[in-house]
Design brief:
The protein is mostly helical and 86 residues long. It is built from four helices and two strands; from the N terminus they run H-H-H-H-E-E. It has one domain. The chain has a two-stranded antiparallel ribbon. The longest helix has 14 residues.
């Protein structure tokens, strides 16, 4: 059951171009807090770094409960364009 919900959220996150919908999906992912969401959130963040909603993705990463957060993913670096992941 949970894997189906997670799969639908990941699919919706990757397929959406609407910033508000991405923020809503990221919020849903952060409520669940499953480590499977780490990579999809980082991937979409890299795609949407210029968006005014990108901070929702960074916030969602902070709510993911995992001891396997990649060293390259956290903490994000701050640049003139905003946060970015190396």
């Amino acid at each position: 059951m949970f894997s189906e919900i997670n799969s639908k959220l990941i699919s919706a996150l990757y397929s959406s171009d609407d910033d508000e919908e991405i923020a809503r999906i990221a919020d849903d992912m952060s409520e669940i807090g499953d480590a499977v969401f780490l990579r999809p959130i980082i991937d979409v963040y890299k795609r949407k770094i210029e968006s005014s909603y990108s901070h929702y993705l960074v916030s969602a990463l902070g709510d993911i409960k995992s001891s396997e957060v990649p060293i390259w993913a956290w903490p994000p670096r701050l640049s003139m364009r905003g946060f970015y992941f190396t």
